[in-house]
Design goal:
alpha+beta; two-stranded antiparallel sheet
Length: 78
């Protein structure tokens, strides 16, 4: 098994969004991407000229497994 690692350091964090475990694609969920203070706002200068923004994200475990219920546990079976 490979032992290589790949580290990613976040440059921003998502604020807002879901407040409890729920299916994705709910619609109407709003959140913002807050750039870390280390990066000046000028980092995003000209971003409006692009048609798409690719956001790579990683989620932290937020809720104990027992709170997620069978729906989440059996997601791969659907």
């Amino acid at each position: 098994m490979p032992t290589d690692t790949f580290e990613v350091r976040p440059v921003a964090h998502v604020v807002g969004g879901h407040s409890k475990p729920a299916d994705d694609f709910q619609g109407g969920v709003r959140s913002i991407i807050r750039l870390d203070e280390e990066y000046p706002l000028e980092t995003l200068q000209g971003i409006e000229e692009f048609s798409h923004l690719v956001v790579t994200w990683h989620t932290e475990p937020s809720w104990p497994t027992e709170m997620l219920g069978d729906y989440w546990r059996d997601a791969d079976a659907r």
